[in-house]
Amino acid sequence: TGYIKGAEAFARWRHPVHGIVPPSAFIGTLENSGVIDALNWVIIEKSIAACRSWHDQEFPIAVSVNLSVTSLSQPSFTDRICESIARHGVEAEYVILEITESAVLASDPQFWESLARLRMKGFGLSVDDYGTGNSNIQMLARIPFSELKIERGFVAGAAENQALGIVLNSCLNLSRSLNRYSVAVGVETKQDWDFLQGMGCTWATLQHDAHLVRDAVFVAEQNVPPEIETDQMDPYCLHCVVYDRQDGSVLGTGRLLPDGHVGRMAVRAEARGRGIGGLILRTLMEQAQQRGDRKVVLNAQTHAQAFYLQHGFATSSPEFEEAGIPHVEMQLVFDDKKKI
């Protein structure tokens, strides 16, 4: 339907020198040192609190949290998370707990007991990155999961790749035969979106024009209706609004998120092709410089193309795709003289 069903919580380390550090750089160290459980609980608490906040603002959506086998093997895990949702007033069905496909190889009986108890309490349980592990159908059937998340490698480009399409269809059929929801991870194009809809996929996570945002910014983004609106300016963001000189109507809007990513951009259909997108980007970069930002990050083809066209470079989506770059991220770094 295109409606937003939920959000997923990710761990990112905002380092004062190195910037945003991905989880691959520190999760392994936390696991080896035996303190990964502490991080898991910080994320769980923040996620449930955020979910309560969304519901209070009339966004009844769910939140997904990635968990390790270590945490789920703790005897007190189920009681502790039940206490957390009760404290925040969130129903269990709005909390989705994700485990990787390789977790089905776990042999700890407490792990399996926790999964069973959580499903009985009403929590959602998702098998993440399906297709990358060594499980088989018999092992998968042991998990009382509610949804199957199909690895992005089987999703991106499936509409144009027959082999990928066959594998993807097989995953979706497995999910349907087990009476489970299906989630396609990392949809990047309209073609793949339409392809998944035609195959009956339940939900999809979008990669196209998407980025990680903080909770407050996420809520503000979802609060913008489909039509261009300028009366709900998010105080956390820098904004650009382009007006028509003749009648004063809004031609386009854009915003720069606190982490330096260019967020939602919208241009009226009748104003497209007039360089409005490039003008918005240039203005946002100027605002970023005035704010003291060291860089601006452009996500997806639309932002990168608008920048290229603004500076005289002719390029198109087919050229990106032929080069094997279906998703573009550019970082424009400012020097001490405030030049790109």
Helix content: 25-40%
User: How would you characterize the largest beta sheet?
Assistant: 7 strands, parallel
- Uncertain residue segments: 224-231, 311-329
Structural category: alpha/beta
> β content, as a range?
15-25%
Distance between the termini: 40 Å
Tally of individual helices: 12
Mean pLDDT: 78
Q: What does this protein look like?
A:
With 340 residues, this protein is of the alpha/beta class. It has twelve helices and 14 strands. It has helices at residues 27-33, 36-56, 69-72, 77-88, 109-121, 137-140, 162-177, 190-199, 215-222, 276-291, 300-310, 317-322, and strands at residues 6-8, 13-15, 19-21, 62-66, 95-100, 124-130, 147-150, 181-187, 203-206, 238-243, 250-256, 262-267, 295-299, 329-333. The protein is globular. The model is unreliable at 224-231 and 311-329 (pLDDT under 50).
Short description:
The protein is an alpha/beta fold and 340 residues long. Helices cover 38% and strands 21% of the residues. Mean pLDDT is 78; it is low at 224-231 and 311-329.
Write the layout of secondary structure elements.
Layout (H helix, E strand, L loop, with lengths): L5 E3 L4 E3 L3 E3 L5 H7 L2 H21 L5 E5 L2 H4 L4 H12 L6 E6 L8 H13 L2 E7 L6 H4 L6 E4 L11 H16 L3 E7 L2 H10 L3 E4 L8 H8 L15 E6 L6 E7 L5 E6 L8 H16 L3 E5 H11 L6 H6 L6 E5 L7
Helix pairs in contact: 2-4, 10-11
